[in-house]
Design goal:
It contains 12 helices and 9 strands. By secondary structure, the protein is an alpha/beta fold. The strands form 3 sheets. The chain has a 4-stranded parallel β-sheet with strand order 6-5-7-8, sandwiched between helices. The chain has a 3-stranded mixed β-sheet with strand order 3-4-9, with helices on one face. A two-stranded parallel ribbon has the order 1-2.
């Protein structure tokens, strides 16, 4: 299960996609009427055409990179396993219902579906909304099979190894710093699960989430920090050579530091040669290819940077495909430790 994409770069298709995405109450967590007026009255009428132009800069002959890469991942995994594998998107035309119907067509006696939300970290606007949307489809259409989900895998050793190995070849190049740019979320999304969270905790230098606290297992900030540290430890990169930031903010009160601001500041701090990656995504998409590789590079170079290299997402990296196969094998053999049972 991945995020989704417009059907084309036509403004009408992008507008339809943005309407669905931004009207999701887990993305913009405001009352429905306020959200309706904000999204359909202000945001999409002005943003759709601009977003359509952005999509055009990354669109491939086969369509949206995210859709193409997710299909390639499905095909690569299907070559390694006997169980039927299908893909679904949270938004757009590749719905969970279509995936469930395709699975039943291939396996009429299907008893259980294990869904893998392709989000390493828990956030209500990504992992949670994908899970709840699939559960709603499963419930409303009364499918006969059980539906369970792989838990967020931000610290899973196999995932960390695949991510680290995908980075390793780039470390042979001369670089000053590695920036982990994660998708941003409003800080209030973390407060929602743990009202005791303080500003000190939300600051990168603040206190980490307390084990056992209400929001500990769903704290996006804690999980992205864990991924960063685990990967850098495996690659033996010293702490002063890497940092993290948050991109794609839509307003005030989002997690900091902001990626675009850091890209402006780094050259002034002596960081001239930058490696950057976006581990909140496993497939390259608009947020990586256009926001970071195109606009982010322009910001960094214009601020005095000399070299800017974006490390691709895992996409169809063979080690990542093998990792997914390993998880499927584990669950097929009765290991339910990784599964969020519904």
């Amino acid at each position: 299960m991945n995020l989704g994409s417009p059907d084309s770069t036509e403004t009408k298709d992008v507008k339809r996609y943005l309407d669905e995405f931004l009207m999701d109450g887990r993305v913009i967590d405001k009352p429905w009427l306020f959200r309706l007026l904000l999204v359909k009255g202000i945001i999409t009428p002005f943003r759709a055409a601009k977003s359509a132009e952005a999509y055009k800069t990354i669109w491939t002959k086969n369509g949206s990179p995210l859709i193409v890469l997710t299909k390639e991942l499905q095909q690569a995994l299907q070559q390694l396993v006997k169980e039927p594998v299908e893909i679904a998107m949270r938004y757009g035309s590749l719905t969970p219902g279509k995936a469930f119907d395709a699975l039943l067509k291939r396996e009429p006696a299907l008893e259980e579906v294990i869904a893998i939300p392709l989000y390493p970290h828990y956030a209500m606007s990504s992992y949670e909304t994908a899970v709840e949307h699939a559960k709603e489809t499963h419930r409303n259409k009364k499918y006969p099979f059980r539906l369970n989900f792989i838990k967020p895998f931000f610290d899973n050793p196999s995932y960390i190894n695949a991510l680290a190995e995908s980075i390793k070849p780039y470390l042979a190049e001369s670089y000053d710093h590695i920036l982990f740019s994660y998708h941003g979320i409003p800080a209030r999304h973390i407060h929602r699960d743990d009202p005791s969270v303080t500003k000190g905790c939300l600051a990168l230098g603040g206190t980490a989430c307390v084990p056992g606290a209400p929001g500990h297992t769903t704290c996006y900030r804690r999980q992205v920090i864990a991924t960063t540290k685990l990967v850098m430890k495996q690659l033996d990169v010293p702490i002063e050579k890497y940092s993290l930031s948050f991109q794609s903010r839509l307003g005030k009160g989002w997690l900091e530091p902001f990626t675009d601001k850091r890209l402006e500041e780094m050259p002034k701090e002596g960081i001239k040669k930058l490696l950057i990656l976006c581990p909140a995504f496993v497939s390259d998409c608009l947020e990586t290819l256009e926001e970071i590789e195109e606009r982010g590079k322009e910001i960094f170079i214009n601020a005095g940077g000399e070299s800017f290299k974006m490390i691709p997402c895992l996409n169809v990296n063979p080690l990542w495909v093998s990792t997914l196969k390993g998880w499927m094998d584990e669950t097929a053999n009765g290991n339910k430790e990784m599964i969020l049972v519904q």
